[in-house]
Amino acid sequence: MEVLLATGIGALTAAGIYLALRSRTFELVLGLTLISYAVNLFIFAMGRPVTGRAPILRDGLPPTLANYADPLPQALVLTAIVISFAMTAVLIVISLKLRAASGGDHVDGADGKRAGEDP
Amino acid sequence: MRPVSGLLPHLAVLPIVAPLLAGAALLLLRRQAAAARAISMLSLLLLLAMAVTLVGYTAGGATLSYALGNWPAPFGIATAVDRLTAMMLTVSSVMGIACQLAADGRASLRFPALLQFQLAGLNGAFLTADLFNLFVFFEVLLAASYALLLDLQSPARLRPGLHYVTVNLLGSSLFLIAAALFYGVAGTLNLADLDVRLQALPAADLELARIAGLLLLVVFAIKAAALPLGLWLPGTYGAAPAHVAALFAIMTKVGVYSIARVHGALFAAPTPGGPAGEPLAGLALPWLLPAGLATLLLGAAGALAARDLRVLVAWLVIGSAGTLLTALGLGSPAATAAAFYYLPHSTFAAGAAFLVVERIARARAAPAAPDEPHYLVSEAERVRDAAWVGALFFAAALAIAGLPPGSGFIGKALLLDAAAAAPARAWVFVIVLLGSLVTLVALARAASTVFWKPMARASASAETLAEAGPSGPAPIPGRGLTAATVLLLGGGLAMVVLARPLFDFLLRAAGALVGA
What we know:
The complex is a heterodimer of chains A (119) and B (516). Chain A is an all-alpha fold and 119 residues long. Chain A has three helices and no strands. The longest helix of chain A is centred in the C-terminal third of the chain and has 32 residues, at 71-102. Mean pLDDT of chain A is 84; it is low at 114-119. With 516 residues, chain B is mainly alpha-helical. Classes of the chains: A mainly alpha (119), B mainly alpha (516).
């Protein structure tokens, strides 16, 4: 379980960083998305995920973390998912605008030439 | 502590709620520019009144904390006000007023609403007592800043906009990793609670806490534009319209504030002669000082090399961030207080400089459009009202370069005074003074290129004068711009007049930060 989670986070991060360093906006968006997935899993892992514990309070069980799954990381992950989702949308809109304006999908504007700079 | 009653306790959360409500209302009023401007200004004045009240309340050492929904302390969402927070709220509301004044006919109709959202994010970041909410408010202010930067949809802003968003998304990911690590080792994200629990951390978890603290430093250094991480700034700020760039001048300061707040409280430097302190004490200091000094030099060099006036001011913003990080890196309460004095000064001065540059661009015989570069050497040549515009530029330059009677002079004097006892004093003295000199040269060269060169050329050839004279397009009135510039420069002047009480206030703020 630990090995699976850790390698999963590591693979997502590595792929995300590789893609984020590429020069096309599409790959950049994919890379940042993968990094945000890795981060979300990492937050979840930092809450010490366990199996077989109830997420919702039950009668008869004292309300301590020994008996229940930690709810806070789940709340944090939800917030992080919403924010990264919205920011990815912003990034995609900017990328599309840039493509329309510069005629290419290079992160510096059209290939070689930089948009908005003097020749 | 005297009992708090009435509206006062709610002042710890109203500076977030009020601009959010005003911004939401302004979204509905997009077509009525005059009404929108009035509502926006009303909300800003209200914010300023709240901030000044809080300054008065906290001056005696009182603090205010607010638990949203009345959830008990380590579990719920909490906000807190101390002296530092009250000062930052005042600075942000003054900047908001200046930017709203400066946003005239050329500004987008959405600007007032976005300005309110930006202020809600800024004030939230200053008020929060919780690491995760610091992240959330960072995202709120960044989201508003993306919209502010790209609002006019000019193609020239798309490329810096894409870079800016990308850098900040990566920064946000690192922030989340650091916050999750802190939660993993300490089981809390409340800053005060975290401080207590970090001191009693088992040795096995110390390295994780160290990694989390340094990752967080990287995140804040991205926001503060410290050397290896700040190269996104000149392109972004240089491309933004003037009233937006002036507002952005406070955003680098959020990074500096967060370093002071989080690292200053969690990893406070051990006091000489005091108790041995926690194992991670002074974690950020060995990184802050060299990074700050290098950033300072780079900012000065960049200003010297800039060919565009706005990019020049953007490099000066980097230089001021370097000065602030240097002061924080010294670690002593006196140096931290000097940083807190330099922080509002550099915000006001950089904001004023961005506005003056816009004024110059409009006063030229052929004004540059907002999304065109404002070159130092311009085909448009002559500057109208050169005496008046030049005086404003001179005043802003005095403040930025740190010459008396500007507030920068006092800020740098306080910094050097605090550095005199530090082991690295030679480095600090040489680099801070060298940086000031290079900044001065860059500003003097810019002024003579902009104001005097065209004059000399015009008097040499009579045709040029006739051509650039009455036949040029009518100048765009810049009354709001001028008023905003005067307001910001006046803010700096007030800091000079009130230097003594202000510094005492900040010294106590710095002491309380470390002691907390």
